[in-house]
From TrEMBL:
PANTHER family: RNA-SPLICING LIGASE RTCB HOMOLOG
Name the UniProt record assigns to this protein: 3'-phosphate/5'-hydroxy nucleic acid ligase
InterPro entries in alphabetical order: RtcB, RtcB-like_sf, RtcB2
GO MF term list: ligase activity
EC number: 6.5.1.8
Lineage of the organism: Bacteria, Pseudomonadati, Pseudomonadota, Betaproteobacteria, Burkholderiales
Catalytic reaction equation(s): a 3'-end 3'-phospho-ribonucleotide-RNA + a 5'-end dephospho-ribonucleoside-RNA + GTP = a ribonucleotidyl-ribonucleotide-RNA + GMP + diphosphate
Cofactor(s) annotated in UniProt: Mn(2+)
DNA sequence: ATGTTC
């Protein structure tokens, strides 16, 4: 059966992307280089594939006999938490939402006894990074209030007790400095050669990796709690998934290691694939098809960068002021008081989400459930500018 | 990505 969204690059290298999806040549090159690592069986790029530091982002890698912590990267456990709040969109003004959201950057541990207790509940003091819990971080991390724009599958939508009028909250963050420290210590000791399955070093990484996944989820949970408190609402988790992590799996009869780097696991239930801050997000379900194995049971984790961070400000500052970039084409608000991030995370720097979603649809990997539009995208209230 | 990099 033909599939125009399946690009076979080499024996064990493929990319899930329609011909109209922008894929940087350098990212394909990184994918091919990674495919040649000892023990690597198969690699696949998602439609949001883009170049990373040595290894591509938006990809999954399946290896036998050894695994590669560097492929997971430093933000072990980075992922998305999607919640439905008790707020209804009816009489909300965006300016009021922004004001009530306030500043959620300061360490939660210094906020109050109440928050210290909430943080304590997650038992992360031994990580040494307790101070970062409950704050978003930098880069592409964000928290976004959204509203439903279109429902495609009413039955699935209803079965998850969703309501078109409810404000949704999406939190994208990870293990902050903790995961980074784990990777750095690993690279200092072992470089990039990977770890042999069953070795004591492998066992040590597994336990650190597991702890980083816990930290990342605790972080997303505390960010959501904090936002809900500021908005005087509560929220129920619809889905929380990591998109940077390692797992042991059996694929086509072979037992091995599945590395996901910016790749959402195609698990049952609802999954969220966000666009840039000026674009829609899609609520989807993964489908089990003949291409599931080729796609290494993974989906895109977002739109994917189109431009390198360093080229954003030069390209955009001529066309837009930072203040103009605090509103988007979908009329949402952007809270980002970091001059560099305003440009680096501009919608123009990302692929259009529709090309990414179209690729996954054409490959038969997803079913659409709903589309959401951004209301407020929160990056940082930190120092500087605007 | 990062209580910010050899």
């Amino acid at each position: 059966m033909g599939n125009s969204s399946l690009q076979i690059i080499a024996d064990n290298v493929s990319v899930i992307a329609s011909p109209t999806t922008w894929i940087e040549g350098g990212a394909i090159q990184q994918l091919q280089t990674t495919a040649k690592l000892p023990g690597m069986r198969r690699v696949v790029g998602m439609p949001d594939l883009h170049p990373g530091r040595g290894y591509p982002v938006g990809a999954a890698f399946f290896s036998i006999g050894r695994f590669y912590p560097a492929l997971i990267g430093g933000d072990i456990g980075c992922g998305m938490r999607f919640l439905k709040t008790d707020l209804t969109i009816g009489k909300l003004s965006l300016d009021k939402l922004v004001k009530r959201l306030g500043n959620i950057d300061a360490p939660l541990t210094e906020h109050s006894d109440f928050w210290q207790e909430r943080v304590d509940a997650y038992q992360m003091r031994d990580t040494g990074f307790e101070r970062s819990l409950g704050s978003i971080g930098g880069g592409n991390h964000f928290a976004e209030l959204q509203q439903f724009d279109e429902i495609y599958d009413r039955a699935v939508f209803d079965s998850h007790a969703l309501d078109r009028q409810q404000v949704m909250l999406l939190v994208h963050s990870g293990s902050r400095g903790f995961g980074g420290q784990i990777l750095r210590q690993h690279i200092d000791h072992f470089g990039h050669v990977g770890l042999l399955a069953g070795s004591s070093a492998a066992a040590a990484y597994w336990s650190q990796h597991a702890r980083a996944l816990q930290y990342a989820e605790a972080n997303r949970s505390l960010i959501a709690e904090r936002i809900c408190a500021n908005l005087s609402t509560t929220a129920d988790v619809v889905v929380d998934v990591h998109h940077n992590f390692l797992s042991e799996v059996c694929i086509d009869g072979e037992h091995g290691f599945l590395h996901r780097k910016g790749a959402t696991p195609a698990d049952p239930g609802l999954l969220i694939i966000p666009g840039s801050r000026g674009d829609y997000s899609y609520l989807v379900q993964a489908l089990d098809t003949e291409y599931s194995s080729i796609s290494l049971f993974s989906l895109a984790h977002g739109a994917g960068r189109k431009w390198m961070r360093s080229e954003c400000e030069p390209r955009l500052s001529k066309r837009f002021t930072a203040t103009q970039l605090s509103r988007t084409a979908l009329n949402s608000r952007v809270v980002c008081h970091d001059k560099a991030l305003i440009f680096e995370e501009a919608p123009e720097a990302y692929k259009p989400i529709d090309t990414v979603i179209h690729s996954l649809l054409e490959a038969g990997l997803i079913r659409l459930v709903a589309k959401l539009k951004p209301l407020v995208s929160y990056k940082t209230s930190g120092a500087c500018c605007v």
